[in-house]
Input
Amino acid sequence: MAKIMEMSSSELVQSIQSGNLKVCVIGIGRIGLPTALSFANSGLPTMGIDINSELVSMIHSGIFPLKDEPGYGTIFENVIKEKKFTATIKIEEGVPVSDVILLSLPTPMDENNVPNYSALKSVGKQLHDLLTPGSLVIVESTIEPGFVEDDLISIIEGSDKKLKAGKNFGIGVCPETANPGQILNDFERLPRLVGAIDDKTANIITKIYHHVFTVDLIPMPDCKTANAVKLTTNVFRDINIAFVNELAMLFEKIGIDVMKVLEAAKTKYNFQVHYPGAGVGGPCLPVNSYQMLNLAKRIDGSLNIVKVGRSVNESMPEHVIALLNDGFLEARKNMENSEVLILGVSYKPDVKDIQLTPAEHIVEKLKAKGTKVKIYDPYFKSTNVFGIKTENNLVDALTNTDAVVIVTAHKEFHDLEPTFLSTKMRTPILIDSRGVIDQHAAKKANLIFRGLGRGKI
Ligand SMILES: NC(=O)c1ccc[n+]([C@@H]2O[C@H](COP(=O)([O-])OP(=O)(O)OC[C@H]3O[C@@H](n4cnc5c(N)ncnc54)[C@H](O)[C@@H]3O)[C@@H](O)[C@H]2O)c1
Output
């Protein structure tokens, strides 16, 4: 049978509908695994490929690794039972026999905030050796505009002229936009962007994604424009959060509650609300801003606002420590040798994920001051996080605690009763960096309360 790039339009439709089209997804982590499962669930035989042998063994044992992704547990069981999904650590088992090769590889940054595309580059080299002519490569990873055109294509083509993009393999992008913790919901709701090396490839990608997902597919003129859209939406958020973070710190000084300002501001038709907090973490927003800055640097452009936004957001853990310090001053206690309980270490609410979380900076700064740090997070109970054995239950964790710092707005913390805290704690200092506590209730409960952007009452 012809490979996908050589099929006629009707052959392609037939091959998709009959479930003959073979797919492999390289990188089956947070995004790649749900993606692979959605492809398998649509009837296309799908192989997940990952260098993480523990993850692959888990899948072989029938254990679904992403417990905080609603809906996928059942899909996982079904596609395994129907033999539509398999996993392997051997890339050579998947690529040569696949029509479509999806890349959902990590694109993190190094300790100097320089984007690191080594996983994509190393898999690109393997594709050069393993790709069967006529296959289609789709990059779902978040990359800088121009990475496919300027780097990846030449890596896959290699120097021996065996493969030529647009001639005997297709390549395009379909950047991933789902939110951890609600990926299935987002896959059914959020439009996707499709960009490719040529129209033929873009049309093929669109047909396949239409079969798997029910969402709108937005055609982009090329790969770099699609990647620019993906970065623009996330950098927009990073900058807007920096803006409200600066407002929060300003308003705090004159007793204006930033949460009240934002609640009212959002009633205006063209105001899009963002909320202040202890910092911006996760695998996307901070990295995406640095990807955009890297692009600007590469082409000698300037992007000052992104740079400033990053530095504001990266200063927020220090501001949380300043609020805490203020609370200790009011309590006439030293922060050194006191016990501080951090509530929430995930970088965002209701997910089990600590990638680039601001909580780590807060914990490290407190440890450096000689403060005893305890952690309670419903997603990280009795485990080790940042070298600290996390607490198993909140009531026990509060005993001997001098200050509580809410760092992540997990659902459980929205329901915290101020009196519950003040009666259990040794010293009743509460720092709310996420605006989840009613500060009047906190005052009534005799808590020494400091809220980020809230001002004293
Ligand atoms: N997590 C998110 O919220 C999110 C949202 C949208 C887009 N993205 C983007 O999607 C991409 C993937 O992110 P993720 O969060 O799923 O990352 P992840 O770290 O959860 O998963 C990546 C997987 O790739 C595997 N891997 C690494 N190198 C490999 C190699 N050489 N060969 C095979 N497998 C390899 C890892 O073992 C891991 O399982 C990134 O570009 C990210 O920016 C992530």
About this structure: The chain has a mean pLDDT of 96. Residues 128 and 156 are 5 Å apart (CA to CA). Residues 223-253 form the longest helix (31 residues). Residues 26-32, 49-52, 55, 104-107, 119, 122-123, 141-142, 176-178, 180, 283-284 surround nicotinamide-adenine-dinucleotide (CB under 6 Å).
